[in-house]
Amino acid sequence: MAKKEQDLQQVVEDALAEQKVPHVKFKGIDPRNIDVDRLTKPSKETRQERWGKGLTFLAIILIGVLIVAIIGFVGMHGLATFIDNKVNVFHFLFSTDWNPGAGKNHVGAAAMIVTSFAVTLLAAIIATPFSIAVALFMTEYVSGKRVQILQSFMELLVGIPSVVYGFIGLMVVVPAVRAVFGGTGFGILTATLILFVMVLPTITSLTVDAFKAIPKELRKSSAALGATKWQTIYHVVLRAARSRIMTAIIFGMARAFGEALAVQMAIGNAVLMPYNLVSPAATLTSQLTSQMGNTVMGTLPNNALWSLALLLLIMSLVFNFLVHLIGKKG
Amino acid sequence: MENWQDQKSYIKTFTEDECAISTQDLSVFYGGTVQKLFNVSLGFKKNTITALIGASGSGKSTFLRSLNRMNDRVARVDGSIMFHSLDVNQSKINVYELRKAIGMVFQKPNPFPKSIRENITYALKANGHRNKKKLDQIVEESLKAAALWDEVKDKLDQSALALSGGQQQRLCIARAIALKPEILLLDEPASALDPVSTAKLEDTLKQLRKKYTMVMVTHNMQQASRISEYTAFFHLGHALEYDTTTNIFTNPQGEITEKYIQGSFG
Amino acid sequence: MNAKKTNRIAAGVIYFLVGIVILLLIGIIGNILITGVPHLSWHFLSSESSSFKAGGGIRDQLFNSLYLLLLTLLISLPIALGAAIYLAEYAPDNWFTQLIRTTIEILSSLPSIVVGLFGYLLFVVQFGLGFSILAGALALTFFNLPTLTSNIEEAIKGVPQTQREAGWALGLSNWKTIRGIVLPAALPGIITGVILSAGRVFGEAAALIYTAGQSGSTVDYSNWNIFSPTSFLNIMRPAETLAVHIWKVNTEGIIPDVNVVSAGTSALLVIVVIIFNFGARALGNWIYKRLTAAKIK
Ligand SMILES: Nc1ncnc2c1ncn2[C@@H]1O[C@H](COP(=O)(O)OP(=O)(O)OP(=O)(O)O)[C@@H](O)[C@H]1O
Ligand SMILES: [Mg+2]
After folding, report:
1. How many domains, in total, are found in chain C?
2. Taking the CB of the first residue and of the last residue of chain A, which one, N or C, has fewer CB atoms within 10 A?
């Protein structure tokens, strides 16, 4: 031990001798005399700091003002239907009579509300098993290159503009639905199938994150107890990720609920209570998209549309709230 | 583990004139509530190297980082820090000026992803130094003082990240002394370095001692004994013993200190 | 049924579902490219669109999309950068910061049609801008801000704390440290984030229908006077983008070659998104290598 240390010392000294550590004399960088006064006075840095903090805070405030303005403006116009035009809120929510041009007793949005929820729920229900399967595949069954490829494909799927999905819907899904079920091919089923593809990557990537967040040890200890892969997945992985999977699904539903153009292109845009999945219908977003340009600002038909927008906004807040609620509990 | 209160403790004191910096009852509360440093009162003599030793988690870094107010954002620091007869642990103190007067070198070398030259001139330029010739001179002298000049003089405009760990650490020292501080705080500056780089670094520090007051955290007892005049022993957030390095290593007053030192040398 | 058998069946089901998804992916992207790419001729890209005849191109829409993207980034980048810096570097851990984060989350999950309608209300109607590039760019800014802010915040947070401490220990102000040290180190991540958000902006249509409008005015590409109504640079003229064009020709259904125009435009959009997606990472990595490479010059 001592011998070894001496050897090491020798090595070090040899190396030092060889590299000739310079023994410099230095003058220009002698410690300066500290001006104690400066320690108590604000300096350039103090001002910089105030500037930087102020400037960046301004940006934050701007975003805050923006969201307040959005909620305020949409809220104001959306409520005008009920305040100025005296439409009954319950009538609005539960009546299926949508013909705002005909007066305040014909502003019933129930058909659109039901359709919006229908496409959203159906899309989420179809997408969830696929998403969980893909996420399990990417985290539990394969690794390396194949995961990366699948991941970039998923990212690409998120990146495809919604009008392109709408167009594919028109080209592929509408004729297919028409061929199988008859009718026009437009309707809830078509919209659902398109939304399914659109929310698939959203739910999948959040579910992948959820699975990845589960410690490896949990899986190992389960496997050590003799559990099969599926038992481990079922009893450990899925259970531990339960609340985050819920969150993923809600994010997917939020995306589906708010999607406008792809749905509007595929659903047929007839404000009717849907009695089956292949008849033309209309969602809140599709009605807004197709009608906002056809009404005059300040009239009842226009205000009624803003009420639909307000409903969308409120649902978006509700989805947000649900995510937080689950996050707190889980 | 023994109770620290059972140990006889001896804290060496200096007169205020002798000290470059000293603390009175310094306590640190992380997040404002979790106390990790307890009433530490230590003075550091001018133009000496003082080593801070102690087990991992004993509060050495916490103490060191309080001296130049690096803990401001994460912790509440109570007590006073006397520097030029001024308590610098007050909110009215200009921490930027304070940090220019009290330089710091960290455990992991952290050069900026800029050229070697810019690493040294960046802060100088921010302070308004514009004279190119003067800057070049400071670059050369501080690199010489950090015993790095010969190795890098031909590649001052290359990225500092291309240097070895030991070279990076010496660059960080050069960067700190380029601001001409009075005091250098070093937090395990050699822990990431190989023996040769360590020896060079120690050689550098020994030379700098003539001009600077240095406080250095180290886990390496040999290193402490090689280059420091004074040593303070930290234990669970308390400064248990503070004396000349010789006394601490050969004749520790307390049992815990003795055990720690024996354990570390053995 | 025993555990082994269940295990095999489960694996089978998972592989089956994954197989369907992969087929779907390939089918969708293949379909867009195969039906669209053959129509991407120079003529298609460089001629004006037609409002009722077949054979129109997408020159103006392409320019408008790029111009709107540029303006949107010009407006949203400084704001997002500021907000991201505040959140990553200054924000104390308190209820106010929490509120701001929630706000940004809400903004990011707002349906883009709602954002577009808000833009319509505020800029087109209230401020009297009319359907215009400016109104469109502002609506897209709202749409872009939350994503861009969190992308940039991530990039900034990725810079090691030791770099900040190095700056502080030299007596630099926090702001100087951020500007001179943290931001350059975060640049690769910031650029990746900006390009990824640009891809989203480029394909967005719902926020534009009622802000930038659904029709183009006649555009003169030799008129550099930005105040002239016919100038291609005029920000007060209405402007239809590629994505809006696809939507419009399909919902109006007037031109006889709707499918050809839509397929070509869709392919173009998807190709741009692919380029943005892969380009973002590649460029980010390249800049990172440049910044940390052994040789600076
Ligand atoms: N930023 C922080 N927030 C909360 N607690 C901290 C923080 N930094 C350090 N601590 C705690 O303070 C105590 C002292 O840590 P410190 O880093 O000062 O120890 P140290 O003596 O430097 O140890 P080492 O030799 O490992 O560097 C430890 O319990 C540590 O967990
Ligand atoms: Mg430490």
Report:
1. 1
2. N
Pairwise CA distance, residues A186 & A175, whole Å: 9
* Domain assignment of residue C89, yes or no: yes
Q: What is the span of the domain harbouring residue A209? A: 111-329
Q: Establish if A209 belongs to a structural domain.
A: yes
Of A45, A63, A228, the CB nearest to C104: A63
Mean pLDDT, residues A176-183 taken together: 90
* Touching subunits for chain B (3+ Cβ pairs under 8 A): A, C
Residues of C in contact with A259 (CB under 8 A): 111
Q: Chain A window 86-115: which residues touch C at a Cβ cutoff of 8 Å?
A: none
pLDDT tens-place string over residues A259-269: 999 999 999 88
Residue B30 is predicted with a pLDDT of: 92
Highest mean predicted confidence (pLDDT) among A16-30, A114-128, A264-278, C228-242: A114-128
Could you tell me if A88 and A180 lie in one domain?
no
Q: What is the pTM of this model?
A: 0.90
Which CATH number covers residue B59? 3.40.50.300
ipTM: 0.91
User: Band of the pLDDT at B5, cuts 50, 70, 90?
Assistant: low
CB contact under 8 A, A39 and B147: no
Name beta bridge partners: B48.
none
Compare CB distances from C165 to B106, B111, B123 and report the shortest one's residue. B106
| pLDDT of A309 above 60 | yes
- B118-136 per-position pLDDT tens digit: 999 999 998 888 888 889 9
A27 confidence band (pLDDT: 50, 70, 90): low
